[in-house]
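Most newcomers find our protein records easier to grasp once they have seen one. Sequence and backbone structure share a record, each on its own labelled line. Nothing more is needed to start thinking about how sequence determines fold. As an example, a complete record with its sequence and its structure tokens follows.
=====
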Amino acid sequence: MQRTTRLALAVATALATAVVGAPSVAASTPEADPHTRGGHHAVFVQTDDPAGNRIIAYRRADDGRLTPAGSYDTQGLGGVLDGSVADHLASQGSLTYDPEHALLYAVNAGSDTVSVFSVDGDRLALRQVVSSGGRFPVSVAVHDDAVFVLNALDGGSVQGYTVHDGRLHERADWNRCLGLDPNAAPQFTNTPGQVGFTGEGDQLVVTTKANGSNLLVFGLDRSGTPADSPVVTHLPGAVPFAFVPDGRHGLYLAEAGTNAVATFAVHPDGTASQQAFAATGQSATCWIVAVRDLLFASNAGSSTLSGFRTADHGRQLTALGDTPTHPGTVDAAVSSDGRYLYAQTGVDGVVDEFAVNPDGSLTALGSQTVPQGVGGEGIVAF
């Protein structure tokens, strides 16, 4: 545990050195028809502003460059974890798109709520604000009609919902406490990092970062109800932060403690085993995004994106080099056609625009300064 704590504190130090229960509110907007609506040629970015959280919309041109297209109030407040530098939420998935229902989910960490927007091209309409079922929501996951929100404080919890008629409906029986140490400090490295589904959708995964350095896997029954307690896979020193699915039962994982990308198989019993490992050689490797057979990991302490090519069902990782960004690289998203990558950089609140080349390299296209976006986290691209 001492080794894990030292590694976790080193992540926060690297960042600092490198960059010096609410009621439901419904909107009057008609329900979006996902067959005719949904996001396209757009990028949405969350500010996580403690004075008032907003979603900033950008229109994506055919050449990948962005122009501002609107600003939308979430009717909630952003939040800031103690010890955070470039990313106030220290998480992945705080802004999540639901393609089946053409909905966008945004956490309001300072209000303990989640905002639900309908999406039409590069336009949003607020439909609902619901309680997150815990304190300080940081990540949202969706699969079919099931949605889970990860709450980071008071030991952590997940709260589940179902989606009907363009609205979230809380399931009281889908709340699970994570049992993490609520007093572990700093909060930035000791709060859970992400909730997400495996590709098959029958397992729910949570990363704990330095607070245990574990992968927690909840089995889900056919109704979507999670197991009473998770299966725990301990990863000493890894500080698992964020992940993306790899096929039906695999994960690509960004490890902040080892500054590496690793692939894991998640077995039917909930245990996880490592398949491949590749160090980035960078500092504070925390976020990860996938496009085709390519992975890009965000290194907040080095202000770079590390590229990898995957092969053999995740059993091989080949490093493709590093691309510089503005200071404090955090969350990233790839356009729906896979041609463009957009990376949030938290120190100055900038989104960097890149073209994704066939060889896995990135070509810089420009950047956008997000209004009130310093420290913000959460980005979705189409």
